[in-house]
Amino acid sequence: MEAKTGSILAQSNGYSLLEPASITKIMSSYIVAQAIEKQEIALTDKVIISNYARSQEGSRMFVEKNSAVSVLDLMRGMIIHSGNDSTVALSEHVAGTEAQFVVRMNAMAVQMGLKNTHFKNSTGLPANGHLTNAYDIALLSRHLIYDHPDIYKIYAEKTFTWNKITQPNRNQLLFTDPSVDGIKTGHTSAAGYCLVSSSVRDNFRLIAVVLGGAKEKDRYDASKALLDFGYREFIRQKIYTKEEIIANISLREGTANTLAVGLPEDLELTFKKGRYQDITAQVKYNIITAPVKKGTVVGDLIFTLDAKVLLSIPVVALQSVEKTNFVFVFLSRLKQRSIAKFNDLVILKK
Prior knowledge:
The chain is of the alpha+beta class. It has 2 domains: 21-235, Beta-lactamase (3-Layer(aba) Sandwich); 241-346, D-Ala-D-Ala carboxypeptidase, C-terminal domain (Peptidoglycan synthesis regulatory factor (PBP3), Domain 2). Helices cover 29% and strands 29% of the residues. It has 10 helices and 16 strands. The strands form 5 sheets. It has a 7-stranded mixed β-sheet with strand order 13-9-10-15-14-12-16. The protein has a 3-stranded antiparallel β-sheet with strand order 5-6-7, sandwiched between helices. It has a two-stranded antiparallel sheet with strand order 1-2. Strand 5 and strand 6 (192-201) form a beta hairpin. It is elongated, with a radius of gyration of 25 Å. The model is unreliable at 337-342 (pLDDT under 50).
């Protein structure tokens, strides 16, 4: 996945339902980050470790029952150590119980549009119905990266020491590829070996998701191959700058007959190398009637390649246009009776 727009560059069985194992903790960290942002909790809060949290099986941070541990340290334990104990402790601190925390996880999955994801716990330990797919995990990872960049930075940390025990980040790509800054490993016998990774090269970020590997080496080899493929075959290029005039579209009943439209921000597009000349772009819009305020969304800019949509993004009015007087309104309506409801303009710069 190209992270900025969420475009899928390559996939195989990307929509097959699979168990995510500790990949689940990406959503758990997102929910904690959201609670911090809403000031429900703070990184400096001290969390008293419950017996339930302490008794979790599998990967652990090794927190002690009744000890007080900061939210920040528990976050490091969850992300770097993949600690099930630290994850449950955080879920209890945020929502009171792990069960209530999972309610938040599933509500956020719906909000993000993760249509094939359902969580049964906060850790990713095996449970009936705890399922997702690679596409949903890529979307979730994209949200984490851009919605909570400060928390995401923890995913790049290579080691964490707690209780005199130093454990390395389980994501081995952090140690072999300097462009990689996350994200999360996962493994159970049912889920296989999983890895979500993200890399930035020349300000171009990709996300790779590998689920269900037969061997630990498989997830690293496949992830590296996906990232290398993306950077080798695709390019990201600036197409339009902020408030650059993309097109002048027809305007009814205004003091001007046309309306300049563009984008509120710079636009970069990701496409296969050597295919720029084959891309077409259109502004699609309903007939616009004055008055129009600058910044109003008036249509969509749609890029296509080989009859497939690469990107669709709203365009806005770059100027305000007032309504004209009654006589000109009458003439304008007569003149534009025959205009179709929708208009397409090819406008891609070459």
